[in-house]
Amino acid sequence: MKLKFILVISLMTVILYGCNKDEVKDMPANAPADQNGTQQTGDTPTDQVTFNFLEFSLDVDYSETESYEVEYEDKKTGIEAKLEDDRKNEKLQGDEAYTKLEPLFKQLNFDSTTPNDEVIDQVIKVFNIEDNYQSIEVDVEFVDGNEKEFKRIK
């Protein structure tokens, strides 16, 4: 009986550790903070976000085996970030991914009312997407609560 209990606890520990690998641990100095200098945990989305979106997902397909993917979520429990670039054999998570993505996200200035083509053109420029892509898909949840999907297929 004790062996089963130990195995279950060990398995749960491994699973919980794996779930947190994408979480950003070292918040940047310019992240929102309250008067005490700690990260904000306000009840409204605009109280705690760094960008004009809470979630950002980018999927660029170059071929069946080559893609460029970005995942970003700003949750009340923290920020999660992930970047995968098959062409450069680069896979970043957590702090490493956020450090690379933050300056790119700061250059994005579209909102939920921006037309599809303008958003895609901006993403291509900011993320330096090569022209030989097959498709681009951007999914965004904005701080105003709107969720939008932007797509371009060649």
UniProtKB/TrEMBL annotation:
The beginning of the lineage is: Bacteria, Bacillati, Bacillota, Bacilli, Bacillales
Q: What is this protein called?
A: YusW-like protein
Give one Pfam family, short name only: YusW
